[in-house]
Amino acid sequence: MKRRNFLAVAAMFAPRWARAQEVGPGIRELAKIVLPAKVAEKTADQFIQWVRDYKPGAEIASGYGNPRTQVTPASPSTHYAEQLRALGSPMTRASVEAALAPFDRIPQRPNGRHVAADLLAFFYNSADGEDYLYGLAIKRDDCRGLGNSMERPARLT
After folding, report:
1. Does 133 reside within a domain?
2. What three-state secondary structure class fits 155?
3. pLDDT at position 143
4. Of 36, 68, 72, 138, which one has the fewest beta carbons inside 10 Å?
5. In the predicted structure, residue 11 carries a pLDDT above the cut 70
6. pLDDT single digits (tens) 101-125
7. Model pTM greater than 0.85?
């Protein structure tokens, strides 16, 4: 690969990678406050990976009966670094509660209004979050097959 091509490719990915690297430690600290301890570390790592891999303008499923093609909006992580700094160092439960006070519900998907709300949305709207809420291994994104489709999902321990 020619150096010029390498630099062009690197420039495309550098902003996302740099943003994820910058907010990573803060998101891990925030996850310990807003998420259940059992899932905080894993979810924080998945959220950081999601921030790193987010592609604005990517086509998303339009859903049944909605023929319009939809695309993902600009990255919601643009202001995460300043929002994490505003929570203080070290972060406290009180500072996170104050930041989440204007919210009356968790958003459907991360939207950039606040990193804490986006982290909650990322987890609780995921298959793992659903399993945690019900206390069952529902695994909504996995195919269980017909052989055991009549069995109830196993309890989480």
Report:
1. no
2. strand
3. 80
4. 68
5. no
6. 999 999 999 999 999 999 999 999 9
7. no
CA distances from 45 to 7, 39, 42, 76, 84 (A): 27, 10, 5, 17, 16
Distance CA 3, CA 24 (A): 29
Tokens found for residue 85: 């700094």
**Across the chain, where does the E strand assignment appear?**
59-60, 70-71
Residue 140 lies in a domain: no
Query: Which tokens in the block code for residue 105?
Result: 């519900």
Backbone torsion region of residue 145, taken as left when φ is above 0, otherwise alpha when ψ lies between -120 and 50, otherwise beta: left
Strands annotated E in 75-144? none
Answer yes or no: is 144 within a domain: no
pLDDT, tens digit (0-9, with 9 covering 90-100), for 77-98: 999 999 999 999 899 999 999 9
DSSP 62: -
Range of the domain at 74: 3-125
Percentage of the chain exceeding pLDDT 70 = 87
Q: Which residues contact 127 (CB under 8 A, 6 or more apart)?
A: 138, 139, 140, 141, 142
